[in-house]
Amino acid sequence: MAYTVADGSRSLSCITFVQRYVVALFLFLLLPTLAWAMPPDVLVKGVEGELHQNIIANLKIAQQKQEANLSAGQMRRLHKQAPEQIAKALTPFGYYAAKVTNNNGKGVLEKNGSRWYALYEVETGPAVLVESLSIEVTGPGKAHEALKNLAAKFPLQRGDRLNDGRYEAGKKRILNLALSNGYIRARFTESRVEVKAKDHKAAIRLCLDSGPLHVFGATSSSQYILKPELLQHYVSYKPGDVYSLEALNRLQSDLYSTGYFSQVTVEPKLLPPEEEQHEVPVELHLQPAPKNRYSLGGGYGTDTGVRGNIGWKNRMINRQGHRPSFNVQLAEKGSRAVGGYEIPVPILDLRYDTIGFDTLYSEESWDDTEISQYTFGSTIKHNGPKYQFGAGVEYLHEAYTVGGRQDDSTWLLMPNAFLTMILAENRVNTDHGIRVSGSIRGAQAPYFASTSFFQFRVGGKAILSVAEKWRVIGRASFGATTMESIDKLPPSLRFYAGGDQSVRGYGYKSLGPTDNSGRVVGGQYLTEGSVELERKLFGIWSAAVFYDLGNAYDTIDANLQQGVGVGVRMTLPFGQIRLDLADAISEEGFSLRIHLTLGADL
Questions:
Q1: Where are the domains of the chain?
Q2: What is the C-alpha to C-alpha distance for residues 273 and 334, in angstroms, rounded to an integer?
């Protein structure tokens, strides 16, 4: 509405009235907001640890720390409810007589400027102790050894402070124990805690009905991916074995790990609880994985230089599970082409046992040594999670030049065997773990060999987390060869030291016996050792200091060479990228060498 005078100008008095009205209305609406307080500061004294944490989690006034829109009335109402909430928060820990002691049991609520402060001093009172514990088992599982004397293993015993968390954990443990022993219908028909708050005592009574014992029935699948008899070898249980969810989970994991399947569903055929059932059939639903897998990669290592590789693997060329593969690697200091053919065989365990046929052509050079080799071999091996071992035979033909002037060639038919043990929860990024390995091989002239030799090598690596953020890493290896003459043994079978995985600070295969011109020609024996101290810095980064020693040699005078250095580590899901700066302290003067490696801890 407009107010005007005769000459058409506005009435100032009318405008002033409207403005004042609007301002007054705005202030009226704003008054509750002006009365709102800042989020409260809540302090609880007299308790610590999990008691304090549970009080804060259940105290509604403490839950408003992120809420700025609290009126004075709301704050007082929440404060009034606090003593009851505190007492209730302590009952799961066996304190049924807890109370707030300051300000006649009400606590203190004060306002300083725009902020509220609440203080509650808590007295827990005497704890409720377990006076009696009774656990009874009924049903067919009553006589089962695993379900006997359950009370002795319960996490709450007579005289212990009552604790709801430990009580529920004990119940869960009993049910899991029954389930893992085939009593999958087990249930508590009675679970009661009788608390006598005035006497500060509690009586616990549990009654478990085991239900019938369940065993595995037949395991079947309608898949046409693998032959049924081959698939059955992956099933670790037999019909009649005690039913176990753990066995089913392991079967699913094992089938996935074969690489044959893109999807694995393990379905136990359980009847409704009201129907009687003792045998549980299992049905497998499987989807095939894409048959061909291709890989393309590249990298750099100070021992190999720039390198690239391309690979192909057929996950399953037939229903017997055969797997061919081929890989080519090109590098500055050597190239290779590898072909393989793998057949699963149920010798000890089909999940890990294979017969493999491999062929290799490679060329490599270092210093004044050049080799060109062709190999063909067959190996029976067990590649389990903790133990890997196997035996086989390999044919080797190698042409080589050593010291820039010795041209020769050797052909050998070599039986061989190996054993490796790895004990670690995580082999890629290890906190605690150990790896121990050993191998032997040899040949006997004139039986399919141009020279005779026998060689063995043993080694190990250990990782120990000695404190938070600190790891100690140690490794050692020793090798020895008996032979007719070092000159007749191809360089690929001689021992050398130096390089990324040997004595850092020295070049790749730069340590060992030399000829008259000072060129390294390789040795009969090998000794290597290393100790490293690593500390995590932040995120994925860590730093290390290390000391290495080792050499290849022909006589008892090993003359072990030494290297020291520092390095940085980048820890990734597939292992560590390690960049080291090392000095060969056994050499005169001061020279630094960079070493770059990538790989798992063990």
A1: 38-123, 129-209, 215-288, 345-599
A2: 66
